[in-house]
Amino acid sequence: MRLPHLLFSVLWLVPVALQIAIALVMLWRGLARAFPLFFSYTVLVPARDLIHLLFPYPGNRYSFVFWWGDALAILLSLGVIFEVLWQVFRPYPFLRFVFKLFWIAAGVATASALTLLPTGPRGADRVLESIMLMERSARVLQLGLLIFLISFMSRLGLTWYHYAVGVAAGFGIYSALDLALLEFRGLVHSVSDTTFALLSSGAYNLAVVVWASYILKTRPETPVDSLPSSDLGYWNDTLTEHMDRWHRR
Amino acid sequence: MASTLTIFAVIVLSLFLVWRMLRPGLPKILSLEDWETKKQPVDLETFRTLLAPGEEQYLRRSLSPSAFRRFQRQRLGLALRGLEQVGKNAAMLMRLGHLAKASTNPDLRREAEDLIDSALRLRVNLLFVEPCLWLKCLFPGWNLSFPALEMQYEELLGYLGRVRQQQWTLKHPVMAS
């Protein structure tokens, strides 16, 4: 077995196995109800990869499953960002401003993504180039939303929502690396398609490992039986007082 | 070319943010003892003094403009460091509240929700206050005002008032009725 072939096999098998395990653990722990879109994504991608085994490559049916599966996976991954946002910020009504800001960020990211589309395909394979341009736009949108989500989660100290952190971080890594590869593919023509396919697969493997490390790992948490007294209320009063003073100046 | 550069900037920014989110930034809090040993002591009175407008006016009058700017930057730097510690404390308390929410005691669960709520409010306040202090650090002589924050701030104050009213009603149901 040649090395690239072996690498392809490993990079194909690892995420399929891990994602099946993630889906089973999510069902077992009831996480599929909390993250239905991420669960669908986790089921869809390995299912698509397994269905590929049934069709000859290259072929129309193979391409059909690949491209429609890819489009669906991108749509689901965009939906997952809204799902994480909802899970993390929904319990706190006073954080509704984050949702408003998120829609603004979504508008800006969509506009940036759309500006990439009119460039239009110029090469020999126009269909493939169109698909790649659309994928690039979708990834830009995805990354824009992820940047917003992750920065807010970090700034507000909400990183103890460990499943949500894992899901967002995995998509952040994969989207960023995949977009980088899409860009390099357009710029660097000396690197073969096989190398790009290997690197893209490697990026996806990295994301799946992040998801697996957050979802498969058991974190035994002993509930605390009392809480300390804190001066958070005084600090809040002091800070609002200062904001008031600055604002009225 | 411009779009490619923008895309690479977005990629670098998102990877940086993911790295920041995944790195172990806060000490692990698994129990009340963890909190007691890892909390950062910050004195509220010192913080209030550092940002007291009277003190600022006094320094402005007593010192030369350059000495005032230097001294004011030091004061604001200390205030920012204090806020950083308070933010860390709030995040650790949030974590502790999250652990307490798993308790079977309904009173403790309610207390935990209040604690998480307060800590989160503090982090939201820091979101506004810290950039303002950074701006003041850059321009110590500048009298800062934030017309753009007016609406959000009034909403926040109104919301805090409503929450306090609700909390009071819950604690004193007989008097409220």
What would your notes on this structure say?
The complex is a heterodimer of chains A (249) and B (177). Chain A is mostly helical and 249 residues long. Chain A has one domain (3-116, 132-218). Helix content of chain A is 78%, strand content 0%. Chain A has nine helices and no strands. Chain A has helices at 3-29, 31-34, 36-52, 60-89, 96-116, 126-155, 162-187, 193-215, 232-248. Chain A is globular, with a radius of gyration of 22 Å. The termini of chain A are far apart. With 177 residues, chain B is mainly α. Chain B is 79% helix and 0% strand. Chain B is built from eight helices and no strands. In chain B, helix 4 (53-62) runs antiparallel to helix 5 (65-100) and helix 5 (65-100) runs antiparallel to helix 6 (106-138). Chain B is flat, with a radius of gyration of 21 Å. The N and C termini of chain B lie far apart (68 Å). Mean pLDDT of chain B is 77; it is low at 146-157. At the A-B interface, helix 5, helix 6, helix 7 and helix 9 of A face helix 1, helix 2, helix 3, helix 5 and helix 6 of B.
Outline of this structure?
The complex is a heterodimer of chains A (249) and B (177). By secondary structure, chain A is mainly α.
Number of domains of chain A: 1
As a percent range, the share of strand residues of chain B is under 5%
* Helix-residue proportion of chain A: over 70%
The tally of beta strands of chain B, per DSSP, is: 0
> Using only CA atoms, what is the Rg of chain A?
22 Å
* Number of helices, where a helix is a run of at least 4 consecutive DSSP H or I residues of chain B: 8
User: What is the mean pLDDT of chain B?
Assistant: 77
Instruction: Outline the low-pLDDT stretches of chain B.
Output: 146-157
Q: What descriptive keywords fit this protein?
A:
heterodimer; A: 249 residues; mainly alpha; 0% strand; globular; B: 177 residues; 79% helix
